[in-house]
Amino acid sequence: MYFSSVRLGKAYVSFHLLPLYMNPVAQRRHLSALKSAWQGKACFNFKTVPDAALLAELERLTHAGFKFFDDKNWV
């Protein structure tokens, strides 16, 4: 099952996190610091290198997404 991906574009880097798409509760709860980079339901676009706080938030969100998939026995 598709979990996440990184796409290098000309103007930005995209990080797609499918568990976020499948869990609207997590969308509302976890997107405080990442709101400016959030595109659509499960994609984050970064035009510059994110600072340590944004990377930490993205890491936390990725771990929460993995737990969501693990709880459903999808991984």
Q: What is shown here, in short?
A:
This protein is of the alpha+beta class and 75 residues long. The chain has helices spanning 18-21, 24-30, 52-71, and strands at 4-8, 13-17, 38-39, 43-46.
Structural overview:
This protein has one domain (4-71). With 75 residues, it is an alpha+beta fold. The chain has a four-stranded antiparallel sheet. Helices cover 41% and strands 21% of the residues.
List keywords for this structure.
alpha+beta, single chain, globular, 75 residues, 3 helices, four-stranded antiparallel beta sheet
Strand content: 15-25%
Written as H for each helix and E for each strand, in order along the chain, the element string is: EEHHEEH
Fraction of residues in H or I helices = 40-55%
Major sheet attributes = 4 strands, antiparallel
What is the residue-mean pLDDT, rounded to a whole number?
87
**C-alpha-based Rg, rounded:** 12 Å
Number of strands: 4
Look at the helices and sheets and give the structural class: alpha+beta
Span between N and C termini?
Answer: 8 Å
- Major sheet: order of its strands? 1-2-4-3
**How many alpha or pi helices?**
3
Spans of at least 5 consecutive residues whose pLDDT stays below 50 are none
Shape assignment: globular
Total tally of structural domains: 1
